[in-house]
Design a protein that fits this description.
This protein has 122 residues and is mainly alpha-helical. The chain contains two helices and two strands. 70% of the residues lie in helices and 7% in strands. The chain is rod-shaped, with a radius of gyration of 43 Å.
Length: 122
């Protein structure tokens, strides 16, 4: 019943295929051992470039926001000047009255130029 003859007839093509397959897997494993560190360095470099680009874009956005705020402040100041035409400012003295009062104050200031220096600090 038991055959002591252990001859297995495997075709040579199958044997070559198995050997090439094992060699291919070994080659891929060895190649990955060398390629993996290079890939890690490259991916970290790309992440750094992406972070730099993001930071630069955020900086540009903040600059544009600051410019917009400055322009809004200028426009608000112009609007305030148009809304209250009787506001006189001399140094730190600021007079704000109705139109009639403004004219009276302007006449007084022209008549007494020393009033211009009241409250002014140099």
């Amino acid at each position: 019943m038991y055959n002591s003859n252990n001859n297995v007839n495997v075709p040579t093509q199958v044997t070559k295929g198995i050997i090439w397959g094992i060699a291919g897997v070994v080659f891929v494993i060895v190649a990955m051992a060398f390629i993996r560190p290079w890939y890690n360095v490259w991916s970290q470099e790309m992440e750094g470039k992406a972070e730099f680009a993001k930071a630069e874009q955020n900086r540009k956005i903040k600059i544009e926001e600051a410019r917009a705020n400055l322009e809004a402040e200028k426009l608000n100041a112009q609007a305030e000047q148009r809304q209250s035409p009787c506001r006189l400012q001399y140094g730190q003295v600021s007079l704000s009255r109705h139109v009639d009062d403004c004219l009276v104050a302007e006449v007084r200031l022209l008549a007494h130029p020393e009033i211009l220096y009241v409250g002014r600090r140099d």
